[in-house]
Amino acid sequence: MQVTLLRRCIAEFFGTFWLVFGGCGSAVLAAAIPSVGIGYLGVSLAFGLTVLTMAYAIGHISGCHLNPAVTIGLVAGKRFPIKEAGQYIVAQVLGGIAAAGVLYVIFTGRDSWDLGGFASNGYGAHSPSGYNLLACLVAEVVLTFFFLIVILGATDQRAAKGFAPLAIGLCLTLIHLIGIPVTNLSVNPARSTGPAIIVGGWALQQLWLFWIAPLVGAAIAGIFYDAVLAEHEQPPVPEKPVTYSA
């Protein structure tokens, strides 16, 4: 029985909530605890685990996109209908905003707190290591491109069955290990939007980059995979028409 679009969007909302709550939550709540903080490695692993767990939980319901860039990449790769992309993206963004709101309530539950960057993505003065706009743009495009290549390859009909969540989760961990020092790593506009709304100011002003770069990288990956790496069935050879002699 086909799952309705509404139910798939609800799955995307909760899946994206889990990604932002788990990934950004690890950065905000656990990464810098004195002496026992989980650091870059822990945050990277947390993001990978959110996708891994949700892929098994809701992959059979919605496909587990959890990311507007993934949805656009799948549309570009002819794996997802464009007419449903808008609804998926709205559900993902709302899930990310809701997760950031819940994190804010938890984070401010101490006697003293400093919001800081609240796991927002940024460039220039707001890059964790001070990388400029061009470097951050290139990093986000390239890392999103390879993330989508892994997604498209791991879910290809020719790929080994049942292992796609592992490949995708580990890929997300890897690209966070690369990208956190550069931009705090987005590759996901929904992940970037929630924290940016909480922080406001500079985070909202720089949010454009973390929509444009992931969408561009994902679209290029989808087009490339479909054109170069996908296996397209050959059109059937028409049968020779039968002729009757008088």
The whole-number mean of residue pLDDT values reads 93
Strand proportion: under 5%
What percent of residues adopt helix (DSSP H or I)? 55-70%
Q: How many domains? A: 1
Structural class: mainly alpha
> What is the CATH C level class, in words?
Mainly Alpha
| SS summary, helix count | 9
Unreliably modeled segments:
241-246
- The beta-strand count equals 0
- Rounded to an integer in angstroms, the radius of gyration calculated over CA atoms is 20 Å
- Briefly note the CATH topology name: Glycerol uptake facilitator protein
What global shape is seen? globular
CATH superfamily label: Glycerol uptake facilitator protein
CATH architecture: Up-down Bundle
- Largest β sheet strand count, sense and barrel closure: none
Gap between N and C termini: 53 Å
Pattern of helices and strands: HHHHHHHHH
Please give a structural write-up.
This protein is an all-alpha fold. The chain has a single domain, classed as Glycerol uptake facilitator protein. It contains nine helices and no strands. The protein has helices at residues 5-30, 39-62, 68-76, 85-107, 133-154, 164-183, 189-199, 202-205, 209-229. α3 crosses α5 (133-154) and α3 packs parallel to α9 (209-229). It is globular and about 60 Å long. Mean pLDDT is 93; it is low at 241-246.
Question: Concise description?
Answer:
Helices cover 65% and strands 0% of the residues.
